[in-house]
Amino acid sequence: MKKLLGIMRRTIESYGMISDGDRVAVGLSGGKDSMALLMLLKKYQSFAPVKFHLEAITVDMGFNTFNLEAAQAFCKMLDVPYEIAKTDIAKVVFEIREEKNPCALCANMRRGVLSDVMKARGLNKLALGHHQDDALSTLFLNMLYAGKLNTLEYISYLSRADIHVIRPFLDAPESEVIRTIQSEKIPVLKSPCPMDRRTKRESINQMLENLEKEVPHSRKSLVTAMRNEAQCNLFKNKKDPLK
Ligand SMILES: Nc1ncnc2c1ncn2[C@@H]1O[C@H](COP(=O)(O)OP(=O)(O)OP(=O)(O)O)[C@@H](O)[C@H]1O
Hints:
By secondary structure, this protein is an alpha/beta fold. The protein has helices at residues 2-14, 32-45, 69-78, 89-96, 102-121, 132-146, 174-184, 200-214, 218-227; strands at 23-27, 53-60, 82-86, 125-127, 155-158, 163-166.
């Protein structure tokens, strides 16, 4: 956990993610990333140079099989206030709209519910569990399906809700999160979503895994390339220098 905590601390402090008096909510899916993030933010709170308040919120999508008891017990153990927002998002996405590409609509609706709960509870920062490997797969998703070079941001602003979204794990490799989950015996809930492990993101992750076998350290090089702003030379709409 120490290593992940160190990475997270550096990210938070170098991007100024949390300020004195902030009221931070962790979006708690019950999955490994957000469960680890909640535990590490709680730890960070005890020695951080700024004072901030921490809570957790789960948007219950309305799948019958979703059991949040372990998440409730985890928050109680950490002494973190916990709110569960019950919704029928699953029904809207899968039954009413019969979405072919349900993930985008689902994420949008979830974000709306999260901001409503945050407003009602006077919370101003939403911490999400995305890590470095998510940033990489997002880059590929955007390139392959949206034709743009774009990835997750460290900090973004939801102007409609006046909320900042922060991603304290964005410099952390997924392997470090997994190691922490195992060493700290953090409970992880099984996702009730029928799309779990069947998304485009999953296929991209598989592709990146295969690439790693063919080109060792490709993941690391790709992340380095993403950071290498000085060497970023892409086609621009400039005049042909030969004319
Ligand atoms: N139902 C939910 N309620 C609250 N926050 C959520 C919920 N689902 C996802 N989130 C937040 O959004 C982040 C990204 O969601 P995504 O579905 O991509 O999860 P993930 O990468 O599998 O992470 P995790 O392991 O935390 O589920 C999560 O890490 C979490 O912070």
